[in-house]
């Protein structure tokens, strides 16, 4: 019996809930792998039939029927190649995060995920029952181990595979991206391969689902822990590797992708996040306010790279405080990108609002109310264009602003998707410079000028906020690392500044609950990843 095995890794972009569509993608990939590359096994990602994460769709009464229909289609239409496919499975009244090995219409083996993550963005214990037995089956006289995502991050399932003497490990994953995740993931796979002294085929999902971005990067690591093959990141792929089950030797059929650097991976994640959110939800395109500032400039650039210039519309909405530099730079960037551009002054709209409010405001001095009204005039215009054209409004607030509430409800927060929601201001500058290395589409003045909302004369962000270098470090320590105020002060920051920043974060939770979602790209993003009460008597520093 031959000890050679050709394994196909199906790194596919699934749509949550589209079980027939996901099934068809798997069938097409399996037939292609069989016919074009004579692959023996096709390995799909975690919960491939339902897409990941299916959330409360797992509670729908018809789920079991739909999954069973999909499995029957796989059994009937895929012959001559072994399928390893993940799906939610009902067994004895319980629901499992499950995988099956199918060959010529017969289920050869089944495995249920043992370690169910219930932290950060994961809440699998809400739905699934953990599996209780190791995932090892015999194939061509050799032992093949099955693992599902979180399993290889824990010693228990890995030790089971080691004890049973597996010759090969197939790992099905839906591992979302965050900065630094690519290297973290590689070390975990290496550790598993070395512990088992066997090659590990790690297949990851690709594509964006609401806040989550899955970056792919499927890989093959040999029993010594060396990376033998790396699939591309942020795009679908069907890749092949030959493995000798007796010797444990792996031989990739194609050349490996490069490990992405920090700027490239973050920018690509944002592009994929926008593309999939727009396409999967059926929007015709996007529209955003292009202010002449760096946040909207970067958002527009990402949108064009994600969708194409013909799907992006930008609107400059000047007011009496808008500088001529802002108007010139917005128009120039629109021209460089080749997008639809228009300018609509909010002055008459604002004046009408103020006229109608004059009696109510009489005797009251001007304050942030007037500034917020400007932002709300712009929000109304963008939402009207969205309603009329079927385009999604992209908001442009970055993580630094979202954290401290430096934004206006129903104004610049009005929209459906915030591209930079989990990107700090310092990273906004880095990404703008990175994007201009490919081709200059963001005017240099936009990058060089002091940031300003231009809602008042001679206004800059630092009138009311610490320098962004300082602010972003404090925010990262508080939000992403959960450090206390005292611990942050001990890092060398002024106590007054730290306490003020933390207080701003805490009291602006109500705004964030009403904000548009955006792609999660750090280890702790606002949204499903960070859940704090709006109504609270908690005070930092006590």
Biggest beta sheet attributes: 7 strands, mixed
Give the strand content: 15-25%
Overall shape: it is elongated
Percent range of helical residues: 25-40%
CATH topology of the largest domain, anyone?
Nitrilase/N-carbamoyl-D-aminoacid amidohydrolase
- How many structural domains can be distinguished in the coordinates? 2
- The CATH class of the largest domain, by name, is Alpha Beta
Span of the ends, CA to CA: 70 Å
Give the integer mean of the pLDDT values. 95
**Spatial sequence of strands, sheet with the most strands:** 5-4-3-2-1-14-15
Which CATH architecture of the largest domain?
4-Layer Sandwich
* Secondary-structure class: alpha/beta
Indicate the low-confidence ranges by residue numbers: none
Could you state the CATH homologous superfamily of the largest domain?
Carbon-nitrogen hydrolase
Number of strands: 20
**Count of DSSP helices?**
16
- Supply Rg: 26 Å
Tags for this entry?
EC 6.3.5.1, 16 helices, alpha/beta, six-stranded mixed β-sheet, Rossmann-like_a/b/a_fold, Rossmann fold, Glutamine-dependent NAD(+) synthetase, glutaminase activity, ATP binding
Question: Could you walk me through the main structural features you see in this protein, from its secondary elements to its overall organization?
Answer:
- The protein is an alpha/beta fold and 542 residues long.
- The protein has helices spanning 19-37, 63-77, 155-163, 181-196, 262-280, 294-307, 324-337, 347-361, 368-389, 399-404, 425-438, 444-448, 468-480, 485-489, 495-507, 509-513; strands at 4-11, 41-43, 82-91, 94-103, 106-112, 136-139, 142-148, 168-173, 200-204, 206-209, 212-215, 219-221, 227-230, 237-244, 249-252, 285-289, 312-316, 340-343, 391-395, 417-418.
- The strands form four sheets. It has a seven-stranded mixed beta sheet, with helices on one face.
- The longest helix is centred in the last third of the chain and has 22 residues, at 368-389.
- The termini are far apart.
- Belongs to the NAD synthetase family.
- Its EC number is 6.3.5.1.
- It is an enzyme of class 6 (ligase).
